[in-house]
Design goal:
By secondary structure, the protein is of the alpha+beta class. The protein has a single domain, classed as Dynein light chain 2a, cytoplasmic (Beta-Lactamase, 2-Layer Sandwich).
Length: 117
């Protein structure tokens, strides 16, 4: 059976992926693989605030809690995928990356991925 480390490695090896980070809902790093100039602990610490704001928005808009968010920035995208009450997957991709297949696979395999954490 694959481990969380195997999952992180598989995502990181995808074309255009700069980082794959598994973190707790509290922002503490569980595992990561990333480019050398990225501090995964620093990035992970900001994710809970994103989830909290998105959950509040979801409640106000009657859409429910956050499942996946895609944040687009000038130098790349961040995909925040809530796996469970305890774990979150953050994937940082280059601005030119095609994320369609990645988003589809994350959505389709969310429960399986969550079972690894």
């Amino acid at each position: 059976m694959p481990t969380i480390r195997d999952l992180v490695a598989a995502i990181r090896q995808r074309d255009g992926v700069d980082a794959a980070v598994i973190l707790g809902r509290d922002g503490l790093l569980i595992d990561s693989q990333n480019v050398a100039d990225l501090a995964p602990e620093e990035v992970a610490a900001h994710v809970p605030a994103i989830i909290s704001a998105a959950d509040e928005f979801g409640a106000a808009a009657r859409r429910g809690t956050l499942t996946t968010a895609v944040l687009e920035h000038p130098h790349g995208l961040a995909i925040v995928s809530v796996l469970s009450d305890d774990a979150v997957l953050l994937v940082l991709v280059q601005a030119t990356a095609n994320i369609g297949q990645l988003l589809f696979e994350l959505r389709r395999n969310r429960e399986h991925i969550a079972s690894l954490v």
